[in-house]
Amino acid sequence: MIIDCIKMSGKRLQFVVGKGGVGKSAVTAALAIVSCAPDERVLAVELGRARGLSRLFGCEDRVGERPVEARPGLFVAAVDGESALAEYLSLVVPIRRLLKTVLATRLYSTFVAAAPGLKELMTVGKIWYENQQLDSSGGAAWDTIVVDAGASGHSLQYLQMPQAAAATFRSGLVHRESNRVAALLRDTTTTAVHVVATPEEMPLAEAADIVARLRGELSLPLGSVYVNRCRSVPPAGIEAGIAKLQEADDGRYARLLTTVRRRLSWTSIQEEGIAALERRIGQSSVRLPDLVAVEFGVEELERLAQSVRMSVENPS
Protein backbone atom coordinates (compact mmCIF):
# COMPACT_ATOMS: atom_id res chain seq x y z
CA MET A 1 0.00 0.00 0.00
CA ILE A 2 1.32 3.43 -0.97
CA ILE A 3 1.73 5.54 2.18
CA ASP A 4 1.68 9.07 0.80
CA CYS A 5 -1.21 10.42 2.87
CA ILE A 6 -0.35 13.85 4.23
CA LYS A 7 -1.60 14.07 7.80
CA MET A 8 -3.81 16.98 8.70
CA SER A 9 -1.64 18.11 11.59
CA GLY A 10 0.73 20.95 10.72
CA LYS A 11 -0.87 21.94 7.39
CA ARG A 12 -1.68 25.64 7.46
CA LEU A 13 -3.92 25.51 4.39
CA GLN A 14 -6.48 22.72 3.98
CA PHE A 15 -9.10 22.30 1.26
CA VAL A 16 -12.07 19.94 1.55
CA VAL A 17 -13.57 18.54 -1.67
CA GLY A 18 -16.00 15.79 -2.65
CA LYS A 19 -19.28 14.97 -4.35
CA GLY A 20 -22.27 17.13 -3.38
CA GLY A 21 -24.22 15.93 -0.37
CA VAL A 22 -21.48 13.94 1.37
CA GLY A 23 -21.08 16.37 4.29
CA LYS A 24 -18.12 18.49 3.18
CA SER A 25 -19.27 21.50 5.19
CA ALA A 26 -19.60 19.41 8.35
CA VAL A 27 -16.14 17.88 7.85
CA THR A 28 -14.67 21.34 7.15
CA ALA A 29 -16.25 22.66 10.36
CA ALA A 30 -14.93 19.67 12.32
CA LEU A 31 -11.41 20.19 10.95
CA ALA A 32 -11.58 23.86 11.92
CA ILE A 33 -12.64 22.97 15.47
CA VAL A 34 -9.85 20.40 15.82
CA SER A 35 -7.28 22.89 14.47
CA CYS A 36 -8.35 25.59 16.93
CA ALA A 37 -5.84 25.08 19.74
CA PRO A 38 -5.51 27.60 22.61
CA ASP A 39 -3.93 30.92 21.58
CA GLU A 40 -4.29 30.06 17.88
CA ARG A 41 -6.48 31.61 15.20
CA VAL A 42 -8.28 29.49 12.62
CA LEU A 43 -10.10 30.77 9.55
CA ALA A 44 -12.88 28.58 8.08
CA VAL A 45 -13.82 29.65 4.56
CA GLU A 46 -16.61 28.63 2.23
CA LEU A 47 -16.32 29.48 -1.43
CA GLY A 48 -19.31 31.39 -2.75
CA ARG A 49 -22.06 32.88 -0.63
CA ALA A 50 -22.56 31.97 3.04
CA ARG A 51 -24.32 28.61 3.24
CA GLY A 52 -23.71 25.31 5.02
CA LEU A 53 -20.46 26.11 6.85
CA SER A 54 -21.74 29.41 8.20
CA ARG A 55 -25.04 27.80 9.20
CA LEU A 56 -23.24 25.09 11.19
CA PHE A 57 -21.52 27.78 13.25
CA GLY A 58 -24.76 29.75 13.60
CA CYS A 59 -23.44 32.91 11.96
CA GLU A 60 -24.86 32.83 8.42
CA ASP A 61 -26.55 36.20 8.93
CA ARG A 62 -23.20 37.85 9.74
CA VAL A 63 -20.75 36.13 7.41
CA GLY A 64 -19.29 37.85 4.37
CA GLU A 65 -15.88 38.64 2.92
CA ARG A 66 -14.65 39.89 6.29
CA PRO A 67 -14.09 37.08 8.80
CA VAL A 68 -16.42 37.00 11.80
CA GLU A 69 -15.59 35.22 15.05
CA ALA A 70 -17.92 32.24 15.50
CA ARG A 71 -16.07 30.76 18.50
CA PRO A 72 -13.06 31.94 20.47
CA GLY A 73 -10.18 31.89 18.00
CA LEU A 74 -12.31 30.46 15.15
CA PHE A 75 -13.40 32.83 12.40
CA VAL A 76 -15.69 32.20 9.41
CA ALA A 77 -15.76 33.92 6.02
CA ALA A 78 -17.43 33.44 2.64
CA VAL A 79 -15.42 34.29 -0.47
CA ASP A 80 -16.75 34.72 -4.00
CA GLY A 81 -14.81 35.71 -7.08
CA GLU A 82 -16.62 38.94 -7.92
CA SER A 83 -16.11 40.39 -4.44
CA ALA A 84 -12.50 39.19 -4.41
CA LEU A 85 -11.89 40.97 -7.73
CA ALA A 86 -13.43 44.18 -6.38
CA GLU A 87 -11.20 43.93 -3.30
CA TYR A 88 -8.13 43.40 -5.49
CA LEU A 89 -9.02 46.42 -7.62
CA SER A 90 -9.35 48.52 -4.46
CA LEU A 91 -5.68 47.74 -3.79
CA VAL A 92 -4.48 48.79 -7.26
CA VAL A 93 -6.97 51.67 -7.76
CA PRO A 94 -6.56 53.69 -4.56
CA ILE A 95 -8.87 56.53 -5.67
CA ARG A 96 -12.25 55.50 -4.28
CA ARG A 97 -14.34 57.63 -6.64
CA LEU A 98 -12.56 56.22 -9.69
CA LEU A 99 -12.91 52.66 -8.36
CA LYS A 100 -16.63 53.14 -7.78
CA THR A 101 -17.01 54.38 -11.35
CA VAL A 102 -15.12 51.36 -12.72
CA LEU A 103 -17.19 48.85 -10.73
CA ALA A 104 -20.46 50.48 -11.84
CA THR A 105 -19.75 50.32 -15.58
CA ARG A 106 -21.60 47.86 -17.78
CA LEU A 107 -18.33 46.92 -19.46
CA TYR A 108 -16.90 45.79 -16.09
CA SER A 109 -19.92 43.61 -15.23
CA THR A 110 -19.94 42.10 -18.74
CA PHE A 111 -16.21 41.36 -18.49
CA VAL A 112 -16.57 39.67 -15.09
CA ALA A 113 -19.45 37.52 -16.30
CA ALA A 114 -17.76 36.53 -19.57
CA ALA A 115 -14.10 36.08 -18.62
CA PRO A 116 -13.52 32.30 -18.34
CA GLY A 117 -12.08 31.26 -14.98
CA LEU A 118 -11.69 34.81 -13.67
CA LYS A 119 -13.95 34.34 -10.65
CA GLU A 120 -12.26 31.06 -9.73
CA LEU A 121 -8.81 32.63 -10.07
CA MET A 122 -9.72 35.62 -7.90
CA THR A 123 -11.39 33.39 -5.30
CA VAL A 124 -8.30 31.24 -4.82
CA GLY A 125 -6.18 34.40 -4.97
CA LYS A 126 -8.15 35.68 -1.98
CA ILE A 127 -7.26 32.48 -0.07
CA TRP A 128 -3.60 33.10 -0.97
CA TYR A 129 -3.94 36.66 0.30
CA GLU A 130 -5.39 35.50 3.64
CA ASN A 131 -2.54 33.00 3.96
CA GLN A 132 -0.02 35.86 3.57
CA GLN A 133 -1.73 38.16 6.08
CA LEU A 134 0.29 39.23 9.13
CA ASP A 135 -0.91 40.25 12.56
CA SER A 136 0.20 43.33 14.52
CA SER A 137 3.27 41.50 15.86
CA GLY A 138 4.46 40.45 12.40
CA GLY A 139 3.42 36.82 12.72
CA ALA A 140 0.92 34.94 10.57
CA ALA A 141 -2.61 36.27 11.02
CA TRP A 142 -3.99 32.71 10.71
CA ASP A 143 -2.45 29.57 12.16
CA THR A 144 -4.72 27.40 9.99
CA ILE A 145 -7.07 28.09 7.09
CA VAL A 146 -9.67 25.41 6.27
CA VAL A 147 -11.63 25.81 3.02
CA ASP A 148 -14.98 24.24 2.15
CA ALA A 149 -14.34 24.17 -1.60
CA GLY A 150 -17.81 22.99 -2.62
CA ALA A 151 -18.85 20.12 -4.90
CA SER A 152 -16.00 18.36 -6.68
CA GLY A 153 -16.65 19.65 -10.21
CA HIS A 154 -16.45 23.30 -9.24
CA SER A 155 -13.89 22.85 -6.45
CA LEU A 156 -11.39 21.25 -8.81
CA GLN A 157 -11.87 24.20 -11.18
CA TYR A 158 -10.88 26.50 -8.32
CA LEU A 159 -7.78 24.44 -7.59
CA GLN A 160 -6.80 24.05 -11.24
CA MET A 161 -7.28 27.66 -12.35
CA PRO A 162 -4.01 29.18 -11.01
CA GLN A 163 -1.94 26.59 -12.91
CA ALA A 164 -4.03 27.08 -16.04
CA ALA A 165 -3.74 30.88 -15.88
CA ALA A 166 0.02 30.73 -15.33
CA ALA A 167 0.37 28.48 -18.38
CA THR A 168 -1.94 30.62 -20.54
CA PHE A 169 -0.33 33.97 -19.69
CA ARG A 170 3.40 33.41 -20.23
CA SER A 171 4.46 36.71 -18.71
CA GLY A 172 3.14 39.79 -16.97
CA LEU A 173 1.05 40.42 -13.88
CA VAL A 174 -1.45 37.56 -14.34
CA HIS A 175 1.37 35.05 -14.92
CA ARG A 176 3.30 36.24 -11.87
CA GLU A 177 0.31 36.29 -9.51
CA SER A 178 -1.03 32.96 -10.77
CA ASN A 179 2.37 31.35 -10.28
CA ARG A 180 2.43 32.52 -6.67
CA VAL A 181 -0.98 31.02 -5.94
CA ALA A 182 -0.20 27.79 -7.81
CA ALA A 183 3.05 27.41 -5.89
CA LEU A 184 1.17 27.70 -2.58
CA LEU A 185 -1.35 25.06 -3.64
CA ARG A 186 1.44 22.65 -4.63
CA ASP A 187 3.48 23.22 -1.46
CA THR A 188 3.41 19.90 0.42
CA THR A 189 4.69 21.53 3.61
CA THR A 190 1.78 23.96 3.74
CA THR A 191 -1.20 22.61 1.82
CA ALA A 192 -3.38 19.50 1.93
CA VAL A 193 -6.49 18.67 -0.08
CA HIS A 194 -8.85 16.36 1.81
CA VAL A 195 -11.43 14.28 -0.04
CA VAL A 196 -14.83 13.39 1.48
CA ALA A 197 -17.18 10.59 0.42
CA THR A 198 -20.01 8.56 1.90
CA PRO A 199 -19.99 4.73 1.80
CA GLU A 200 -22.09 4.49 -1.35
CA GLU A 201 -21.16 3.52 -4.90
CA MET A 202 -21.26 6.92 -6.64
CA PRO A 203 -19.57 9.03 -3.92
CA LEU A 204 -16.84 6.41 -3.44
CA ALA A 205 -16.20 6.22 -7.19
CA GLU A 206 -16.06 10.01 -7.46
CA ALA A 207 -13.67 10.19 -4.49
CA ALA A 208 -11.32 7.76 -6.25
CA ASP A 209 -11.49 9.87 -9.41
CA ILE A 210 -10.70 13.04 -7.43
CA VAL A 211 -7.68 11.37 -5.81
CA ALA A 212 -6.44 10.31 -9.26
CA ARG A 213 -6.78 13.87 -10.57
CA LEU A 214 -5.04 15.37 -7.53
CA ARG A 215 -2.11 13.00 -7.97
CA GLY A 216 -2.12 13.28 -11.75
CA GLU A 217 -2.97 16.34 -13.82
CA LEU A 218 -3.37 18.70 -10.84
CA SER A 219 -0.24 17.56 -8.95
CA LEU A 220 -1.68 18.77 -5.63
CA PRO A 221 -0.86 17.35 -2.17
CA LEU A 222 -3.45 14.82 -1.08
CA GLY A 223 -4.47 14.92 2.57
CA SER A 224 -6.88 12.47 4.20
CA VAL A 225 -9.69 10.63 2.47
CA TYR A 226 -12.71 10.79 4.79
CA VAL A 227 -15.60 8.35 4.44
CA ASN A 228 -18.43 10.10 6.23
CA ARG A 229 -21.65 8.63 7.70
CA CYS A 230 -20.28 5.14 8.22
CA ARG A 231 -22.40 2.57 10.04
CA SER A 232 -20.71 0.87 12.98
CA VAL A 233 -19.23 -2.55 12.18
CA PRO A 234 -20.95 -5.36 14.13
CA PRO A 235 -18.85 -7.58 16.40
CA ALA A 236 -17.29 -10.76 15.04
CA GLY A 237 -19.49 -13.83 15.28
CA ILE A 238 -22.81 -12.01 15.13
CA GLU A 239 -23.87 -13.85 11.96
CA ALA A 240 -23.48 -17.21 13.70
CA GLY A 241 -25.46 -15.93 16.68
CA ILE A 242 -28.31 -14.71 14.49
CA ALA A 243 -28.40 -18.05 12.65
CA LYS A 244 -28.83 -19.88 15.96
CA LEU A 245 -31.61 -17.51 17.05
CA GLN A 246 -33.37 -18.00 13.73
CA GLU A 247 -33.26 -21.77 14.14
CA ALA A 248 -34.79 -21.55 17.62
CA ASP A 249 -37.32 -18.81 16.79
CA ASP A 250 -40.98 -19.77 16.74
CA GLY A 251 -41.94 -16.78 14.61
CA ARG A 252 -42.19 -14.13 17.30
CA TYR A 253 -38.94 -12.44 16.30
CA ALA A 254 -39.07 -12.98 12.54
CA ARG A 255 -39.49 -9.27 11.71
CA LEU A 256 -36.72 -8.28 14.12
CA LEU A 257 -34.32 -10.84 12.68
CA THR A 258 -35.16 -9.69 9.14
CA THR A 259 -34.36 -6.08 10.12
CA VAL A 260 -31.07 -7.14 11.70
CA ARG A 261 -30.07 -9.12 8.63
CA ARG A 262 -30.92 -6.17 6.38
CA ARG A 263 -28.72 -3.94 8.57
CA LEU A 264 -25.87 -6.45 8.32
CA SER A 265 -26.30 -6.55 4.55
CA TRP A 266 -25.95 -2.77 4.32
CA THR A 267 -22.86 -2.91 6.53
CA SER A 268 -21.36 -5.61 4.31
CA ILE A 269 -21.93 -3.45 1.21
CA GLN A 270 -20.33 -0.50 3.04
CA GLU A 271 -17.24 -2.53 3.92
CA GLU A 272 -16.86 -3.86 0.39
CA GLY A 273 -17.16 -0.35 -1.05
CA ILE A 274 -14.59 1.16 1.33
CA ALA A 275 -12.19 -1.72 0.72
CA ALA A 276 -12.50 -1.21 -3.05
CA LEU A 277 -11.83 2.53 -2.64
CA GLU A 278 -8.73 1.89 -0.54
CA ARG A 279 -7.38 -0.63 -3.06
CA ARG A 280 -7.94 1.82 -5.88
CA ILE A 281 -6.29 4.82 -4.20
CA GLY A 282 -3.56 2.81 -2.44
CA GLN A 283 -4.06 4.23 1.05
CA SER A 284 -6.30 3.90 4.08
CA SER A 285 -9.36 6.08 4.53
CA VAL A 286 -10.59 7.76 7.70
CA ARG A 287 -14.05 6.65 8.78
CA LEU A 288 -16.43 9.14 10.33
CA PRO A 289 -19.65 8.00 12.06
CA ASP A 290 -23.21 8.22 10.85
CA LEU A 291 -24.69 10.74 13.29
CA VAL A 292 -28.43 10.27 13.06
CA ALA A 293 -30.33 13.44 14.00
CA VAL A 294 -33.46 15.29 12.94
CA GLU A 295 -31.20 18.28 12.26
CA PHE A 296 -27.39 18.26 12.28
CA GLY A 297 -26.53 20.74 15.03
CA VAL A 298 -23.90 21.72 17.57
CA GLU A 299 -23.96 18.41 19.44
CA GLU A 300 -23.48 16.37 16.26
CA LEU A 301 -20.73 18.74 15.07
CA GLU A 302 -18.83 18.28 18.34
CA ARG A 303 -19.13 14.50 18.03
CA LEU A 304 -17.87 14.63 14.46
CA ALA A 305 -14.95 16.84 15.52
CA GLN A 306 -14.09 14.32 18.22
CA SER A 307 -13.95 11.56 15.60
CA VAL A 308 -11.67 13.70 13.41
CA ARG A 309 -9.48 14.47 16.43
CA MET A 310 -9.13 10.76 17.21
CA SER A 311 -8.14 10.03 13.60
CA VAL A 312 -5.35 12.62 13.85
CA GLU A 313 -4.10 11.43 17.23
CA ASN A 314 -4.30 7.74 16.26
CA PRO A 315 -3.64 7.54 12.50
CA SER A 316 -4.04 4.09 10.94
Write the layout of secondary structure elements.
Blueprint: E1 13-18, H1 24-35, E2 42-47, H2 52-56, E3 68-71, E4 74-79, H3 81-92, H4 96-104, H5 106-114, H6 118-132, E5 144-151, H7 152-168, H8 172-186, E6 191-197, H9 201-215, E7 222-230, H10 238-248, H11 254-281, E8 286-289, H12 298-313
Parallel strand pairs: 1-5, 1-6, 2-4, 2-5, 6-7, 7-8
Antiparallel strand pairs: 3-4
Helix pairs in contact: 1-12, 3-6, 6-7, 6-8, 7-8, 9-11, 10-11
Write a concise keyword list for the protein shown above.
eight-stranded mixed beta sheet; 316 residues; Rossmann fold; disordered N terminus; alpha/beta; single chain; 8 strands
How would you concisely characterize the structure shown here?
With 316 residues, this protein is an alpha/beta fold. The chain has helices at residues 24-35, 52-56, 81-92, 96-104, 106-114, 118-132, 152-168, 172-186, 201-215, 238-248, 254-281, 298-313; strands spanning 13-18, 42-47, 68-71, 74-79, 144-151, 191-197, 222-230, 286-289.
Account of the 3D structure:
By secondary structure, this protein is of the alpha/beta class. The protein has one domain (13-233, 283-313): Rossmann fold (3-Layer(aba) Sandwich), CATH 3.40.50.300. The chain has helices at residues 24-35, 52-56, 81-92, 96-104, 106-114, 118-132, 152-168, 172-186, 201-215, 238-248, 254-281, 298-313; strands at 13-18, 42-47, 68-71, 74-79, 144-151, 191-197, 222-230, 286-289. It has an eight-stranded mixed β-sheet, with helices on both faces. Helix 9 (201-215) links the parallel strand 6 and strand 7 (222-230).
